[in-house]
User: Fold this.
Amino acid sequence: MTDTRFSIIIPVLNESAGLAETLQMLQPLRTNGAQVLVVDGGSTDETLTIAEPLADSVLKSPASRSRQMNTGAMHACGDVLIFLHADTRLPAHCLEHIDTAIRDGARWGRFDVTITGQHWMLPVIAFMMNWRSRLTGIATGDQAIFMQRSFFNQLGGFSDQPLMEDIELSVRLRKVARPACLRPRAVTSGRRWETRGVWRTILLMWQLRWCYWRGDSPHHLAKRYR
Assistant:
């Protein structure tokens, strides 16, 4: 374990199906000093009951991933913040990898990702995500974005928007510093693609990103996404 203090921030909303597994896998990191913060956006299932014994703090926030992550950051004690989706598992020795990157001069970064599921396209999607992120310096929430807390505060945190908050922050971050693109793989669920249809979801996400880059409102795009 490193001397760096880490805070892992998990925004949740009705995540009872997989949250216990995610939090159980973080318990060794808690034992070694990492802080785990779960930020709930108004769950109506068993999410809070599952989270309370397995997190250092369970916070409440209006239902918006950006607001929830900002709330977690406000209560974090760590020198480094890790923003983790409820259906994503961090790679082995993740804190050591992050600590090495920070000590080598990185101010922020993300992991490569593997997407679990049955569809043959999911490994291709993961490959393209990793390649695109390394090329553009843009990270997505599935990749377990991390950064120095002082850097996060300096840039004002996540923008208060209902979609593309990870991309918006990445754009501001990369203007100051390129991300550390770590090759160990976080493992994230392919449920979004398989539930909605893989090809349909790919097309929708490309359309939404194109519209976002053209300047369309994230609030309008969020309605299309849902």
Observations:
- The chain has a mean pLDDT of 94.
- The chain has one domain: 6-191.
- Residues 148 and 154 are 10 Å apart (CA to CA).
